[in-house]
Amino acid sequence: MQSDCSHQSLNNFIKSLGFCEFSQELVNIAFTHSSYTKENNLPYTKCYERLEFLGDAVLKMATTDYLYKTYPEKQEGELTKIRSVVVSDEILHKVAINIGIEPFIKVSEAEKKCGGQKLESIQACVIEAMFGALYLSSDKQKLNEFIINNLKIWIEDVEQNKSVYNAKAILQEYTQAQSKEIPIYETIAEIGAAHDKTFCVSVVYNNKSLATATGKTKKQAQQLAAYEACKKLNLIKEENENK
User: Fold this and answer.
1) Which CATH number characterizes residue 229's domain?
2) How sure is the predictor about 110, in pLDDT bands with cuts at 50, 70 and 90?
């Protein structure tokens, strides 16, 4: 079981993020993976999954409110696309790395040996669960500001580089217009340890590889491959040419 010392370290970490009053019990749950509760015969309610469910809604509401007020000229569809990227596991993982949550995540010994604390999916879930815990027990306005302050750079990046983030949709619209077929993304290589892989993906259409790219996740590699394919097909221009 977790020691009082590690409990105190987690509490100090949350305070370092700017939160003075919060439920230590809820925060502890937010950093507890289901593998840990199973290993220690703890009830399901002691893992982060319920708080993650709540935190996901809190995250989307804060992001939606910010986008609505910041981009009054954008249509609903554009705002939805930006939000879908910003609240994705990929972006939440970057936030998690930036604030340094890894040492405080509790997983089973087996999960720890596999590098579970480093996994994008687990870190993204913990971030959302932390939002849920703080929503229930801390200053909601401070939480909203914390969320936006940590996402603002990514919101701006997505808004300014729409072609990169929308490349998969652009490429699919093109291929379906040509032959009603969709491009296929094939993972041709996986390099590195399970918790720190690099994926190489090829996007194929009409049995021909249009482009290849690498990324830290399959989704990122697919996105970049689609972007390279779109450039080759003159469907979009380089982002810096549009600025």
Assistant:
1) 3.30.160.20
2) very high
